[in-house]
Amino acid sequence: MLEADRFKDYGPNGLQVEGKARIHKVVTGVTASLAMIEAAVAEGADALLVHHGLFWRGQDGRVTGWMRQRLATLLKHDINLIAYHLPLDAHASLGNNAQWGQRLGWVADARFGDQNLGFMGSAPADLGFDALVQQLRQVMGREVTGVPGDGRPIQRVAWCSGGAQGYFEQAIAAGADVFLTGEISEPQAHYAKETGVAFIACGHHASERWGVQAVGEHLAQRMGVAHTFIDLPNPA
Question: Given a cut of 90, is residue 102 above it in pLDDT?
């Protein structure tokens, strides 16, 4: 369903740690941290489905420290760990970007960026920067960091969840009046001021909570498994 083989990703998608052969209870969450794994144990999970798994390109492969703790807990309780990264950002209806847009009342009519991960659509009439910031505070449940650009009317909105601040230039080239993502780095404030296109960072974790929930609910409806989403707050 998520077409994981389509994506060139930073780590393996799919089953990362094998557990029980039969799954009755699925817990979903953003990241396979020790706290999330322990919460899945407390919920009686047979499988933990996350966006950020354990294994990433560039790791040295040694099972020590935090990696040992996480793996030991999964193996002790026979819990399957399943992770989908970019496929879960990109899915047209269940992905992080689709679900984020849905909560903001936006429908994507175009894609942009590497592997078409960025979404773009038309803004509601008379949407201003300040009104958008206020809406985002309510939807995200946290403060956001915004650079207003030149104050132009917002007609085209672009967004990409997580750490996609590097997509800002591509969003500008695609005709966006504002770009939303999870994080901001030093260059984006300058690009916003110099191009006039607004930039808003809404939190990496906060912008990637909805895809796993949607997939978990889909599994519950299609396969009859029990599903619980656990949100462990993260300031990033």
Answer: yes
- DSSP class of residue 62? -
CA 151, CA 185: separation in Å to the nearest integer?
21
Domain that holds residue 157: 90-207
Same-domain pairing of 26 and 106? no
CA-wise closest residue to 109 among 163, 188, 169, 175: 175
Is the pLDDT at 126 greater than 90? The verdict is: no
Number of domains in the chain: 2
Q: Would you say the pTM of this structure is higher than 0.85?
A: yes
3-state secondary structure of 24: coil
205-209: average pLDDT:
98
Q: How far is CA 118 from the centre of its chain?
A: 12
Residues 221 and 140 in one domain: no
Amino acid identity for residue 109 in this structure:
D
Q: Considering the domain boundaries, does residue 121 fall inside one?
A: yes
β-bridge partners, 226: 25
